[in-house]
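hi support,

uploading two proteins for the ticket. first:
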Amino acid sequence: MAHILIIDDEKAIRAALRDILEHEKHKVEEAEDGMAGLEKAKAGKFDLVLCDIKMPKMDGLEVLTKLQAHNEELPVVMISGHGTIDTAVDALKKGAFDFIEKPPNISRILVSVRNALDRGNLVQETKVLRQKVGKAKANGVQMIGESKALEQIREMIEKVAPSDARVLITGGNGAGKEGVARLIHQKSSRAEGPYIEVNCAAIPGELIESELFGHMKGSFTSAIKDRKGKFELADGGTLFLDEIGDMALSAQAKVLRALQEGRITPVGGDKDVSVNVRVIAATNKDLKKEIEKGNFREDLFHRLSVIPIHVPSLGERLEDIPLLAEHFIGLVCAEQGITPKKIAEKALKDLQKLPWTGNVRELRNVIERLVILSGKEITEADVKAYAMPRA
């Protein structure tokens, strides 16, 4: 059921339109002139406006212009007994959804109303989708918190981002290393260029070289065509090598050459390809210990760690949990389409007592669980029931 406003100075026309629309189960309101109609449209929440063109006090085209300025997403169907092609074209140019001549044909009215409402629903769905996408993107790059440790990272990002210096980000799983990398890219001169991410831990050792440097057709059994690698795809932008500590030694040697010379060689190829890439790497491992074990090249470590940034664990910044919790509650409620919930002060204090071995990622998952399973407010009892670790 839609909420529709009819603006027309002819009482008989308003009555006829009302009968048609109410028969279709729509809620209908009326206005006898343009001025009254504009006031009603601005004061109420309507899904559609049917508006006459020739009216006292304010004509329909002026009403249309003012409605567009007030809410450009509100569909307006113009109706006129003095219609000409020029009038119809003018109305459509001004933003009208449709133009109908009087006396209105029932079928023509119903089709126009249905199409206008469908368009309105589509616009609204698109708006919601964009908001969700925006939130998803923001969730990946925002740094929520006011702890001293986080402030130091923000200051470091501001200093480092404008340069092309390589950055090595360290920290535990779920601490937010990817978010730091994305912020550095977004604040750099390469922000308009590509941002390519590679999870080195997720790619088998025998495939990592092909993934990074590409391959030529026929270079191995499944190489059925030439393929560009991540280094080449990131040309002019940023390449984020996540979990660099898990990269195979053979690939490490080629990455070192790419950093030293700015050139790569695809697997099976005999020609070098020049690349202009800023490399940001991240790891949850102690690379100095990995060097001692023979698992990581010391020369590559020094190439990568021009600017080292350590992302503290959530346990090192417990004072940020209230802000993070509020942020995640807002995100989860929006995603689930439920009324935003509050969280009790005692519940927040209990959250601050938990170990958080999974860091910010774990907190986000716990908050989602609490939002779904709690009542109107997330209480201390909810935290004990759904967030506390069980023996």
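and the second one:
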Amino acid sequence: MTRQRAFLGHLYMVLFMVYLLLPLLVMAGAAFNDSKLPTIVPWRGFTLHWFGDLFADQRMWHAALNSILVALAVVVLAVPIGTAAAILINSVSGRARATLYGFMIAPVLAPGLVIGISTVLFWNSLGHVTGATDFFFFNPGLHLSTLGQVSYIAAYVMLLVLARLQSFDQGLEEAALDLGASHGQVLRRILLPHLYPAIGAGAAIAFFQSIENFNVTLFTRGGQDTLTVYVFSQVRSGITPTINALALMLMLFTVVCAVIYETRRRRRAAIEAAREAEARRAEAAML
């Protein structure tokens, strides 16, 4: 019975991985097929022509640069807002806690197109009220895309930091304050170092959430292009394997980043384990 369960478990994992990876392999194969259609059937020969077209597409590179700039701006705004919201929610209780938590979570539950339209209408109305409709800040553009994305991406950062706060020992803060530390010193030297892993994860999630965002960006971008909007326009006008080449490059970039992160994580874990083993050996020698 145990062998049968193990076999079924391994079979399930194999089928699951095939289900996940097979579409990606087909997509990657189409980037090397000498066909004007993004397909691997029929196979017309190996070519790198589509990668050449991709690198020659200046509009795509401009859209990619816009996406990266918007994503970095989203990280700069969403991480402090989400972290501050998590600390505030963790410090209160009762109805105030539930109210603040609901306000922060509400944008996540709203459809992206609602957030995009609401962002444009809000800033447009604010421009009319202040009489500054000609000022660029109140008109659609990448800055409004950034603000619209921050309104809900900050909630993801808040959830990560809030989860990390559950493992924080409040007694450390009280002890530091009793020893004469200021609230700023407690924040910088005790609380934030504990939250750095969650803040880093929140920054990564904010960055990639912004890169792949489409609905909010579509309504707020004005005349600017981002990578998702560019891909959407290409699909509407007739998709070519150039999109497959772009997707393959993004996949490889993601894999390389994941490998680098995992390598560094294992190296740090090995160093920490070696230090703990050395400490145990030193303690045993003293005893």
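thanks. also noticed: DSSP finds eleven helices and no strands in the chain.
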